[in-house]
Write a structure and sequence with these properties.
This protein is mainly α and 277 residues long. The protein has 14 helices and no strands. Helix 9 runs antiparallel to helix 10. The longest helix has 38 residues.
Length: 277
């Protein structure tokens, strides 16, 4: 069969329904883009240069990127086993566990920060004994990571769970029938096949963590992350100063997000190529 015959030519569809799809999509995209456009156009090149030259803003941006990356790694390492259990096992309380995973998505982040204080604060259930052992969460980088992890962990678990649920159970059964243990089947079959969902979850955790404000500002006001620094600038210096710093955070977050997406796609392509050999 010729290449021309194999090529699928998309057919244009006309009518009210496609028009409604485009209108609704355009409205939502415009709703998302207009505030970003307003922020960018309100910032001058000079303001951006001044913001980039500020040690305070640079340190805050670096801290946010670093802690968001650490949070993504921790969320992935801890979230993948839970995602696999939720996808492959049916146990008493399964629905309750899933609801607990989703709970941070429904809790206001200031409430999350206050809740974390009861556990990781200086007099908290874990914070007090761990502080006596030399590990403090209140006003430290560890506290920032804990706050980021609490609000973003559902993205890691849910993305990986959906990927594990989509696997063909016959593939795993075949591996077990050939003598592979449960651990070997997970490591050599399930995890590589679900890798795309796992990576997507890690990227989403990073994106959510770098922008977190509410939980972080309550548990670890200092050292100040980029969102906290921008909020302080807004209160102390006004809209123009904070807008420049906000655009820098936007650029850094977008750049690192695109890099992670590209790396993830590259790993996936490389993995698929090896799998076909």
């Amino acid at each position: 069969m010729s290449d021309t015959a194999d090529r699928v030519v998309p057919r244009r569809v006309h009518g009210l329904f496609p028009a409604l799809l485009w209108v609704a999509s355009g409205l939502l995209l415009g709703f998302i883009l207009l505030p970003v456009l307003g922020l960018v156009t309100a910032t001058s090149p000079g303001g951006l240069r001044d913001a980039a030259a500020s040690d305070e803003i640079r340190d805050a941006l670096l801290l946010s990127v670093q802690d968001a990356a650490i949070t993504a790694v921790i969320a992935t390492v801890l979230g993948v086993p839970l995602a696999y259990l939720l996808a492959k096992r049916r146990f008493p309380g399964h629905a309750l566990v899933q609801a607990i995973v989703d709970l941070p998505l429904a809790v206001p982040h200031t409430v999350a920060g206050i809740s974390l204080l009861f556990v990781f604060g200086r007099t908290g259930w874990l914070g007090a004994p761990l502080q006596a052992a030399g590990l403090s969460f209140y006003g430290t980088q560890a506290g920032i990571i804990v706050a980021m992890l609490f609000v973003s962990a559902p993205f890691a678990v849910n993305s990986a769970r959906v990927a594990f649920e989509a696997l063909d159970p016959n593939v795993e059964r075949a591996a077990r029938s050939l003598g592979a243990s449960a651990g070997q089947t997970f490591r050599r079959v399930s995890l590589p096949l679900a890798w795309r969902g796992v990576l997507t979850g890690a990227v989403l955790v990073y994106a959510r963590s770098i922008s977190e404000f509410g939980a972080v500002v309550i548990l670890a006001y200092y050292p100040a992350t980029a969102p906290v620094t921008i909020y302080n600038l807004f209160l102390s210096s006004g809209l123009a100063e904070s807008a420049s710093a906000a655009v820098l955070l936007l650029l850094v977050a977008l750049a690192t997000f695109l890099v992670l997406r590209t790396l993830a796609s590259g790993w996936l392509v490389a993995g698929n190529t090896r799998a076909r050999r």
